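mind reviewing this fold:
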Amino acid sequence: MGAMSGSIPWYTMMVLHKRSPFFQRVDDTLGVFHTHAVAGVLGGLLSGFFARPNLLRMMYRSNRYGPGLLYCIKDRNLSRGLRQMWFQILGALFIIAWNAVVTSLICFLISRIVDLRMKEEELDIGDDAVHGEEAYALWGDGEKTPASIRKHMRIPSIGRRQK
């Protein structure tokens, strides 16, 4: 699980993201989709696949949660393993739907106060320059950009968004 949880999200971020026209249109600078969504779904599904019966009995007193699919294949009781995988898939779908709804609501509410994205001309200058900072300035060796350079840039207000 450890090797897969590191390599598969990395592969989706570094290889599939560059090849997919859909991902090319998504502004995911920090790779949040790959590090949280891909890794989270993968971890949930692999937990259902590798769930050890003795650990499940220790954690849950009932037999409601079956062993992982791998152990059911060994015991030739495939239906219990598939049932557990179904629980894992339903759990992942619920989390995806919950995150989509709640994140959309939060973004909508925040967009009523401030812009969610910087203007294109500000992005061309760079996020650090807009704020008058230098990236990776360590031990006080970074200098603030003089105000005369920054004065033409508009910093969004905290008031209600203009239409």
Q: What stands out?
A: The chain is about 65% helix and 0% strand. The radius of gyration is 23 Å. The chain has a mean pLDDT of 78.
